[in-house]
Amino acid sequence: MSPSHARKQGIRYRYYVSSPLLQGHAGHAGSVHRVPAPEIEALVSQAVRKHLKDSASADGDLIRAHVARVNVQADHLAIELRRPKQGQPPSREHGTVPSRDGGELEADLLRVPWKKPPSKRRREIMMPQSTASQDARPIRAETRATLIASIARGRRWLDEIVAGTVTVDQIALREECSIRQVNMTISLAFLAPKLVQAAIEGRLPRGVGITRLRDAPAEWSRQYAMLGLLV
Fold this sequence. Notes:
- Helix content is 38%, strand content 20%.
- By secondary structure, it is of the alpha+beta class.
- The protein has two domains: 2-113, no CATH class; 133-227, no CATH class.
- The strands form two sheets. It has a four-stranded antiparallel sheet. Strands 1-2-3 form a three-stranded antiparallel sheet.
- Helix 2 (37-52) packs across helix 3 and helix 4 (141-163) crosses helix 6.
- Residues 87-106 have low confidence and may be disordered.
């Protein structure tokens, strides 16, 4: 898969596209031709983080440092992790992958269940009480990707604090942001599960993003009421 993007109505959407397809060899392309980049990146970083038990590194740093290649199959992602030959024996399937200097690195192989969603699927948007169904529009793709990443970041920071490995002040220093920004991001970890699921599936209505969801009431029913959403 190779990174690509498309623009629709001024919005930039990121994808990974089958390399043989981009090279004009459609007959050699697999069953999956194009996948949304934010969804794949989130699954890969989550799997690598869990495998390495690394709760501190940023998602991008984890992928750049440890991922050799990701093969997108019809029913799973095969993630090949870099590991020097002199390292400890792999805990899962392993093989070899080319390194940038022309040599080889041994690689653990992680398999993550995954299915490409239908290209055209009906999505039942969580409806604001004052909006007619024909007027409802789903959350923008880029807003959705940013929101999901922020929710994941807030949960990760909360886990670190609960584990006693860092404080809010230390996170702010590490991430080069304000303490208030850390607290606002962590508040996303307390969103109602149905709201999080709706965000992942792209069913939140347009206009509901990070700004409206930060520092929401603790009670889930009040979160829906605050947004004017029907449960």
